[in-house]
Amino acid sequence: MAALGRPFSFALSDVTFRSLALLVFALVAGLLGCTSAPPAPDAQGWHALPLPGKALTRYTWGEKDGRAAWLADADHSASMWRKRVNVPPQQLHEVSFSWWVPELIPGSSMADVEREDTPARVLFGFDGDTARLPLRTRVQFELVQALTGEMPPYATLMYVWDPQLPVGTVIVSRRSDRMRKIVVDSGTAELRRWRDHRRDLAADFRRAFGEAPGTLTSIAYMTDSDNTRSRARCWYGPVQLH
Q1: Residues with Cβ < 8 Å from 23, sequence gap 6 or more?
Q2: Which residue ranges form the domains of the chain, and what is each CATH number?
Q3: What is the C-alpha separation between 148 and 184, in angstroms, rounded?
Q4: Residue 163 and residue 108: Cα distance in Å, rounded?
Q5: pLDDT of residue 149
Q6: Angstrom distance (rounded) from CA 75 to CA 57
Q7: CB 222 within 8 A of CB 83
Q8: Which of 108, 115, 161, 227 lies deepest, with the highest CB count within 10 Å?
Q9: DSSP class of residue 242?
Q10: The pTM is what?
Q11: What DSSP letter does each residue of 106-169 carry, written as one string?
Q12: pLDDT, tens only, 75-130
């Protein structure tokens, strides 16, 4: 990650600092790349990534219809199952992933920050030159790093299942424009079957962000149901880079 230059200095009252801390924790949850405590990785490098103030979604390894898969069970919860990687941009080509979803979440919408829950999403975190970002974003990033010890990704690209939005829709997150989502499944017609997706990751990044991707630094699954106070379930097949 490129350095941001000279650190920012703040003279804050206790009240102002608490307000900023709440803002930063909200940003951490929105950026989907930070945690308030170091994760405990498993043998394959995957680890739970909690979000501040959120109950954990449960991720377990098993099988679904004869396929090896991670099972995600969300109960009024939101957290990720993440693996760190280091893939230079010149090696970014196609990516394949799959998911099996039994039901969608009633009333949810990936375009509405108050109802932004989904059984199925796969996330890719990218490095980049943060010095090019607006001052407000860089200040937010530095506050997140100071409070959590981890810098948010320069950019996060998600593939998601939305109840209504057409396949191919690109959604810019209202929490941060450094997060963008591409709808790859929509509606209920494909429920209760394996959905196999193969995407040109670099091309999708350029379409979503209008620039070339940097180094791929993380891959994650996320099934969440905290905003709608509901439950959700999804089986995820392995993510493979080609």
Answers
A1: 140, 143
A2: 14-241 (2.60.120)
A3: 32
A4: 7
A5: 72
A6: 7
A7: no
A8: 161
A9: -
A10: 0.83
A11: TT--TT-TTS--BS-EEEEEE---GGGS-HHHHHHHHHHHHHHS-PPPSEEEEEEEESSSPTT-
A12: 999 999 999 999 999 999 999 999 999 999 999 999 999 999 999 999 999 999 99
Q: What is the pLDDT of residue 33?
A: 41
Query: What is d(CA 180, CA 187) in angstroms, rounded to the nearest whole number?
Result: 20
Q: Where are the alpha helices (DSSP H) in the chain?
A: 14-31, 135-148, 201-209
Cα 72 to chain centroid distance, Å, stands at 14
In sequence order, what are the beta bridge partners of 209? none
3-state secondary structure of 73: strand
Q: pLDDT of 141-187, one tens digit each? A: 888 787 667 888 999 999 999 999 999 999 999 888 899 999 999 99
Tokens of 194: 């394996």
